[in-house]
């Protein structure tokens, strides 16, 4: 079984589509970026799984971002999944909790799902209150309310693996409520051990062997952060020369640390001087 794979499948008898996801190295890469306590790791892994599964259901060429902001112990969680199979994410917290219930983790919170195009400035965002005892319930409620598309999610994560399955009733199909209810009940019999240790073929056969399952080729998922020095320099230019020089005077340098991947970018007085150096008349060089 490939360690970091997304696989699409169809339950043709029930007119239901699905996605199966298993992440190992990608999840481990994300965990090395920050020292997350156990209660943060669990929901961060579930959110990572959910974002990849959701992105796979939408035809787009850019990125899907899942973001939760609240006033609980975890006050920010962000996961970004791209159409190219890359992911990155982070969580911020300010106090500990022993609970794993969503209201106890995030308090009063909102969840935003944002779609951004890769080649244009087009952006679509849906913002709803965070409701339910689990992230699966919150996202299922989102699809029922915002998309009117029956959807089921089974998410899990531990220190080694993040994994999940998504089921979605096909729109404009003659699927019956009985079919949807049956496959939903079958999904509820899945265990964390099966999802962790079995290949997609084995999981789907165990759950849906009477539903005429069609499994498609897998897609590799990997951790990747798009930060780079050019983007950092562009951000500093947007602050303006006066602000940049104030920071230099106070700290002797400007240091930017990417919260997604922990990469550090340092600029000294010479670098800042070059950033704001006026272009010479007749010069074709951009600074």
UniProtKB/TrEMBL annotation:
Under oxidizing conditions two disulfide bonds are formed involving the reactive cysteines. Under reducing conditions zinc is bound to the reactive cysteines and the protein is inactive. GO terms for molecular function: protein folding chaperone; unfolded protein binding. Gene3D superfamilies: helix hairpin bin, Hsp33 domain, HSP33 redox switch-like. InterPro entries: Heat_shock_Hsp33, Heat_shock_Hsp33_C, Heat_shock_Hsp33_N, Hsp33_helix_hairpin_bin_dom_sf. Disulfide bonds join 225-227, 258-261. The keyword Cytoplasm applies. The keyword Chaperone applies. Keywords: Chaperone, Cytoplasm, Disulfide bond, Redox-active center, Zinc. It holds the Pfam family HSP33. GO terms for cellular component: cytoplasm. It comes from the Bacteria. Its main location: cytoplasm. One of its GO terms (biological process) is protein refolding. It is found in: Cytoplasm. Belongs to the HSP33 family. NCBIfam families: PRK00114.1. Redox regulated molecular chaperone. Protects both thermally unfolding and oxidatively damaged proteins from irreversible aggregation. Plays an important role in the bacterial defense system toward oxidative stress. This is 33 kDa chaperonin. The lineage of its organism: Bacteria, Pseudomonadati, Pseudomonadota, Gammaproteobacteria, Thiotrichales.
């Amino acid at each position: 079984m490939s360690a970091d794979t997304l696989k699409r499948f169809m339950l043709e008898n029930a007119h239901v589509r699905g996605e199966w996801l298993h992440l190992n190295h990608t999840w481990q890469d994300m965990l090395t970026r920050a020292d997350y306590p156990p209660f943060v790791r669990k929901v961060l892994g579930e959110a990572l799984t959910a974002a990849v599964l959701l992105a796979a259901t939408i035809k787009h060429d850019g990125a899907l971002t899942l973001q939760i902001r609240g006033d609980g112990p975890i006050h920010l969680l962000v996961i970004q999944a791209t159409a190219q199979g890359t992911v990155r994410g982070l969580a911020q917290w300010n106090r500990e909790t022993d609970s794993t219930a969503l209201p106890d983790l995030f308090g009063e919170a909102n969840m935003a799902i944002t779609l951004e195009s890769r080649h244009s400035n087009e952006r679509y965002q849906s913002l709803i209150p965070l409701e339910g005892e689990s992230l699966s319930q919150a996202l299922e409620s989102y699809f029922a309310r915002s998309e009117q598309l029956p959807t089921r999610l089974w998410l899990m994560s531990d220190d080694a693996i993040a994994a999940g399955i998504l089921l979605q009733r096909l729109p404009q199909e003659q699927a019956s409520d009985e079919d949807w209810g049956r496959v939903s009940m079958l999904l509820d019999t899945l265990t964390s051990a099966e999802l962790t240790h079995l290949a997609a073929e084995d999981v789907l056969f165990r759950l849906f062997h009477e539903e005429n399952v069609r499994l498609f080729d897998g897609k590799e998922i990997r951790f990747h952060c798009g930060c780079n020095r050019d983007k950092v320099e562009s951000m500093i230019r947007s602050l303006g020369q006066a602000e940049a020089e104030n920071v230099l005077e106070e700290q002797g340098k400007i240091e930017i640390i990417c919260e997604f991947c922990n990469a550090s970018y340092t600029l000294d007085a010479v670098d800042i001087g070059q950033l704001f150096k006026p272009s010479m008349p007749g010069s074709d060089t951009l600074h």
